[in-house]
Amino acid sequence: MTQVKPAPGGRMLTVLRVHLPSEIPIVGCEITPYVLLRRPDGGIFTDDVPEASAVDGYFMRYKWYRIQSDRRAAVCSVHPTEQATLQCIGCLKSKIPVAKSYHCSAKCFSDAWQHHKVLHERAISALNENGTEEEELFGRFGSGSSSSGIISAALSGSTPNLSQSSGANNGPTPVYPTGTEKSSGETWFEVGCSRTYTATADDIGHALRFECVVVDLETRGTMGAPTSVMTSRVIPAPTPTPRRLIPVNAADAMGHFDLDNRTSSFGTFTVLSYNILADTYATSDTYSYCPTWALSWAYRRQNLLREIIGYHADIICLQEVQNNHFEEFFAPELDKHGYQALYKRRTTEVYAGSPQAIDGCATFFRRDRFSHVKKYEVEFNKAAQSLTDAIIPAAQKKLALNRLVKDNIALIAVLEAKFGNHGTENPSKRQLLCVANTHINIHHDLKDVKLWQIHTLLKGLEKIAVSADIPMLVCGDFNSIPGSTSHGLLAMGKVDQMHPDLPVDPLGILRPLSKLTHQLPLVSAYSSFARMASVGYDLDHQRRRMDPATNEPLFTNCTRDFTGTIDYIFYTADSLTVESLLELLDEDSLRKDTALPSPEWSSDHIALLAEFRCTPRVRR
């Protein structure tokens, strides 16, 4: 039994307040409670006070408990904060992960059927490839277009007992030699003794309790009763249906590739482009339809990392990566997976927030596939200053800079492939690759600024192309829809001089219009879905997710306020060919009546990924 030592004069370290960043803990996501403390001298602070850094003879002791009852609750796979009442028989028979089989109501199951049936279709495909008859396991409901013919079974009681469910498999209950208490039919298992805790699969369906107490360094006695806070039941991390690589070359157009079991073949490489939605922009005001816990950075960063790593890309181009998140999370985490990192943060002439919270572009590449040759940084603010000095009268410079200076940047990396140049005319020649990663200005009423930024970037890339015989990739969030002047410049090498957007040019920065050209043979990678002459289920399915008028995806950004395509991967078609593309999402892939971000997808953008092969340059 610990002793409580009275503090002289009542002056000691004191806990003022404890609360959690989110009441709903998710498996795999670190929980760090907010603990407000008062020093003996009256100062208020939130830093940790471990035994090694005691404050005036006091330190903090923490404990985490799992509150476990005899009855465990299954969790709905669609609404993870709800208990499940239905279980899909088809999932159990096909050995789909049991967590995906649960639903909270018949309506939930019916609404999710278009998304859920994809799990069955893929399980059928896998079983058929392994020689198992479709009818044997799926019978009447394997290929149905609706959920009629009941494939869900009611679980007994409103709080189903997983131990009695034939499909339940949550692993053995751990035995803790110490820190176990039983009270009122509940058992408290001590699961952690630090300030932070990461929920595990064993915690699913159970609440957690966090306790903290001040301890006297000399006597080891606690100073009063612990301060505690409870969580809701732990839920599993929602897992979206994996996206596959769809071949678009003539040889493989009838098949598909499983990303989990695929690496780039010799002479090919994969490139991912993804705006991950910076935490500073992920507010409940903007994304009120997304649960608060799913907007928290503690959850989103783990979900994003799982998704990004799962694509196994050789080159990764990310946008909206906060400076602190790059340094403290993405760079070290991706380093563990063999990636080298390059980063360029946005400039700060306009930005007024914390320097650590400013976002930028990050490019990663696998060390075993590429080596770094050179890095270029494009600051459009500097280009704006040079432009105004050259063409804007002195009296109008301030007004011009207010319109042009938006802190946008681009990061250009020249890489050398380590997989050689075999199969080309000169196999001993170094195989270089230029990768541009950019985030163009977002403001819809500044179309002239968008076009000027993209033209500036392309002119810079032209200079690199002149100096070296080098394939190029231009990736990023261009904040420009298909059919815009910016998209036309990228895809066609020029703009339609009769385009209705062009008259909006108050500074005259686009004049003469004849200068709005470039000589790079750029093609949008995803237009390959529309241009392929081959037929097949996968290609036809993807074509339905394309806009036939523009040969671009129907959307890459999907919120309640906007749904459209603004993200692209462009490539030089005279030196690269597209081998395969990451399948697109459609409305059935998202939860009904929702948008992005969501518990499954942690950005308001979708990731784009293309596999390329270097080819002998076509001489014009």
UniProtKB/TrEMBL annotation:
Necessary cofactors: Mg(2+)
Comp. bias (Polar residues): 161-172
Source species, domain of life: Eukaryota
A Pfam family reported for this protein in Swiss-Prot or TrEMBL: Exo_endo_phos
Top class in the EC scheme: hydrolase
Sample GO molecular function, one term: poly(A)-specific ribonuclease activity
Compartment list: Cytoplasm; Nucleus
Protein EC: 3.1.13.4
Catalytic activity: Exonucleolytic cleavage of poly(A) to 5'-AMP
Entry-linked InterPro entries: CCR4/nocturin_mRNA_transcr (IPR050410), Endo/exonu/phosph_ase_sf (IPR036691), Endo/exonuclease/phosphatase (IPR005135), Zfn-C6H2 (IPR031615)
Annotated keywords: Cytoplasm, Hydrolase, Magnesium, Metal-binding, Nuclease, Nucleus, Repeat, RNA-binding, Transcription, Transcription regulation
CDD domains: Deadenylase_CCR4
Residue intervals of the Endonuclease/exonuclease/phosphatase domain: 272-605
Residue segments, region Disordered: 161-182
Ranges where the C6H2-type domain occurs: 82-121
Family affiliation: Belongs to the CCR4/nocturin family.
Role of this protein: Acts as a catalytic component of the CCR4-NOT core complex, which in the nucleus seems to be a general transcription factor, and in the cytoplasm the major mRNA deadenylase involved in mRNA turnover.
Subunit structure: Component of the CCR4-NOT complex, at least composed of CRR4 and CAF1 proteins.
Name assigned to this protein: poly(A)-specific ribonuclease
Upper taxonomic lineage: Eukaryota, Viridiplantae, Streptophyta, Embryophyta, Tracheophyta
